[in-house]
Design brief:
- The chain is elongated, with a radius of gyration of 20 Å.
- Helix content is 43%, strand content 27%.
- It has a single domain, classed as Translation initiation factor 3 (IF-3), C-terminal domain (Translation Initiation Factor IF3), CATH 3.30.110.10.
- It has helices spanning 3-18, 37-52, 71-87, and strands at 26-31, 56-62, 91-100, 103-110.
- The chain has three helices and four strands.
- The longest helix has 17 residues, at 71-87.
- Strands 1-2-4-3 form a four-stranded mixed beta sheet, with helices on one face.
- By secondary structure, the chain is α+β, with helices and mostly antiparallel strands.
Length: 114
């Protein structure tokens, strides 16, 4: 058997198999503690669309200056967004909000269709 032909066939099989896998990407939505309610709703709609497409969503709350002293306001805003998504049965909280430097992150995963 020709080794080159064998390698070609194996490569073809792996590409065909890769086409059947569903890839999940991590999309990001950025907020600030003083984000207006209308802008917040736009970000919420964006997160809903990302989860509906089967992607994970990383919601980032960015703090500037002295806003970091009121991190609880940012955490409450993140949890409100997360609870809205969970109540609508679009996704689940994969990683709870955690503060890293001047940013607070929360990761939402799409709800499995099982």
């Amino acid at each position: 058997m020709d080794y080159g032909r064998y390698k070609y066939q194996e490569k073809k099989k792996s590409r065909a198999a890769a086409g059947h896998h569903k890839t999940s990407r991590l999309k990001e939505v950025k907020l600030r503690p003083k984000t207006n309610i209308n802008d917040y709703n736009v970000k919420l709609d964006r997160a809903r669309r990302f989860l509906g497409d089967g992607n994970k969503v990383k919601v980032t709350m960015m703090f500037r200056g002295r806003e970091i002293f009121h991190a609880n306001v940012g955490r409450d805003r993140l949890m409100l967004l997360a609870q809205t998504v969970v109540d609508e049965a679009l996704g689940v909280i994969e990683v709870e909000p955690r503060l890293e430097g001047r940013n607070m992150h929360l990761i939402l995963a799409p709800k499995s269709s099982n």
